[in-house]
From TrEMBL:
Any one Pfam family match given in the protein's UniProt record, by short name: NUDIX_4
Reactions catalysed: 8-oxo-dGTP + H2O = 8-oxo-dGMP + diphosphate + H(+)
Listed name of the protein: 8-oxo-dGTP diphosphatase
Transmembrane segments annotated in the record for this chain: none
Enzyme class: hydrolase
Any GO BP: DNA replication
Keywords from the named record: DNA damage, DNA repair, DNA replication, Hydrolase, Magnesium, Metal-binding, Mutator protein
EC number: 3.6.1.55
Domain of life: Bacteria
CDD domains given in the database record: NUDIX_MutT_NudA_like
Taxonomic path: Bacteria, Bacillati, Actinomycetota, Actinomycetes, Micrococcales
Cofactor dependence: Mg(2+)
Family statement drawn from the similarity comment of this UniProt entry: Belongs to the Nudix hydrolase family.
C-alpha cells in the first residue's frame, strides 16, 4: 500500500538569542502552509546530522552546528509514514534566507503553540517547551 511508504526526515531546531526559527511550508504540495522545522529527507549514505547540514545549506543558505537530538517520532500521513528526528542547532555562518519556505518566524518557546505545526512536529514542540521554559 502506498500509505506504508517510509520517509526518514530530519528537522533543525535553530536557536539564536533564545528564539527558535519556525518555517512555513509553501502553498502547494504536502502539508501546504503548515509550520515545520527546516530540513528534509535523509539521502542514502548520509548521517542524520550530515543530511541536516546539507538541507539547511540548501534551504536557508546558512551553516548550522548540529547538537543534541530533541525528539524522534513517527507519524502516519496519507502519503506515508514519516519518522521525524529533530536536533538543536546553532548558526555558525550566514543568515537564514528564505528560498523554499513561504515565511519564517523567530519565536520564544512558549509562543510555538500559536502556529499550525505539521502533525509530526507536535512532540518536538512540546519537548522544546519542556527543555527551555520561558
Ligand atoms: N523538513 C521537514 N519536513 C517535515 C517536518 N514535519 C513533517 O511532517 N515533515 C514532512 C513533510 C514532508 O512530507 C517530509 C519532508 O520532506 P521534504 O522537506 O523533502 O518535503 P517535500 O514536501 O519537499 O518533499 P516532496 O514533496 O519533494 O516529496 O516530512 C518538519 O518539521 N520538517
Amino acid at each position: 500500500m502506498g500509505s506504508e511508504k517510509r520517509i526518514d526526515v530530519v528537522g533543525a531546531v535553530i536557536i539564536d538569542q533564545g528564539l527558535i526559527l519556525c518555517a512555513q511550508r509553501g502553498p502547494s504540495g504536502s502539508l501546504a502552509g503548515m509550520w515545520e522545522f527546516p530540513g528534509g529527507k535523509i539521502e542514502p549514505g548520509e548521517t542524520p546530522q550530515e543530511a541536516l547540514q546539507r538541507e539547511i545549506d540548501e534551504e536557508l543558505d546558512c551553516t548550522v552546528l548540529v547538537g543534541q537530538q530533541v525528539e524522534s517520532t513517527r507519524h502516519q500521513y496519507d502519503f506515508g509514514i514519516v519518522t521525524l528526528t529533530t536536533f538543536y542547532c546553532h548558526l555558525v555562518a550566514g543568515t537564514p534566507t528564505l528560498s523554499e519556505h513561504a515565511a519564517v518566524r523567530w519565536l520564544a518557546p512558549a509562543e510555538l503553540s500559536e502556529l499550525a505545526w505539521a502533525p509530526a512536529d507536535i512532540p518536538a514542540v512540546e519537548k522544546i517547551q519542556a527543555d527551555l521554559p520561558s
